Amino acid sequence: MKFQLVAILFLLVISCSDDDRIIEDLALEGDWTLSNVACYCNFEEDVDFSLTTINFDSSKSMVTVTNESEYTFFRENGEHFYGGQVNRINFSDGMVFFFETRGNQLTLTYEDNPDIADDEVVYMFNR
Q1: Contacts for 80 with CB less than 8 Å, ≥ 6 apart
Q2: What pLDDT, in 10s, does the model give residues 85-99?
Q3: Does the pTM exceed 0.85?
Q4: Which of 2, 47, 119, 121 sits a CA distance of 20 to 30 A from 93?
Q5: Kind and range of the H or E run holding 3
Q6: CA-CA distance, 113 to 104, in Å (whole number)?
Q7: What's the pLDDT at 17?
Q8: Contact 40/120 with Cβ under 8 angstroms?
């Protein structure tokens, strides 16, 4: 009887798994240069987005942001730890981004808060 109870508990434990995979961030690895920002923002015509670069280190779950512009895009300068699942990046301050990589292009889309109008922001990076 004890064996059957242990066997049933074992089967329950191994059958209960999380379907969400850990963040698939290997495609993010390396250096990226900001090429464009799509939002309900007003930028001057001569804004040079390429002065913002990011570097993902998936082994440390860290992104390093370098802004050499008067503007701050994406995150403040420095190292930022991230987590997440599948194609979502979560930062400790509560900001969440969806990411998509296609070849040498990376798109980071801010997870929209439905209670705030016009907070949609999409960051486009190139290698």
Answers
A1: 62, 63, 64, 65, 91
A2: 888 999 988 889 999
A3: no
A4: 47
A5: helix 2-15
A6: 29
A7: 43
A8: yes
